[in-house]
Design goal:
The chain is mainly alpha-helical. The chain has two domains: 80 residues, lambda repressor-like DNA-binding domains (434 Repressor (Amino-terminal Domain)), CATH 1.10.260; 40 residues. It has seven helices and no strands. The protein starts with 10 loop residues before the first helix and ends with a helix.
């Protein structure tokens, strides 16, 4: 019987990490494609808007490479998406389960709005909130 050799990094752990990375990259590429479709953007458009190379976008879109922090930042800015959302979708930040759906988008839109638009957004949100409380 051969002796069992223990390593600091078990093979199972390495394989699990590789599979997790691949699934994350595929999930991100599918999500990114959906976001591009919503905006009628092609990969060439994303290359132009983000400043990333066509090879980098291609690898991200095929899932052969995950999007790193710089790529996520460029994609978020190019597509006018909240940076935090792109980082979470890419698996670079842990998911927030306690947040209401669309909260990141709401915050992103609010931050980008002018002071007058922010006042109007808050006014509208207050009206909608009062309506929903009155229905209960």
């Amino acid at each position: 019987m051969l002796p069992c050799v223990k390593t600091q990094f078990p093979i199972g752990s390495i394989l699990t990490d590789m599979i997790t990375f691949q699934m994350s990259a595929i999930y991100f590429s599918e999500w990114l494609q959906e976001e591009m479709n919503k905006r009628n953007l092609t990969q060439a458009d994303l290359v132009r808007l983000s400043g990333l190379t066509s090879a980098a976008i291609s690898r991200i879109m095929t899932g052969s490479r995950g999007a790193g922090p710089e790529a996520c930042l460029a994609i978020a800015r190019a597509m006018d998406l909240p940076e935090e959302e792109v980082f979470r979708r890419a698996g670079l930040l842990s998911p927030k389960t306690e947040d209401a759906p669309n909260l990141a988008e709401w915050v992103h839109l609010f931050i980008k709005a002018t002071p007058e638009e922010r006042d109007r957004m808050l006014e509208l949100a207050r009206v909608l909130s009062r309506r929903s409380r009155n229905k209960k």
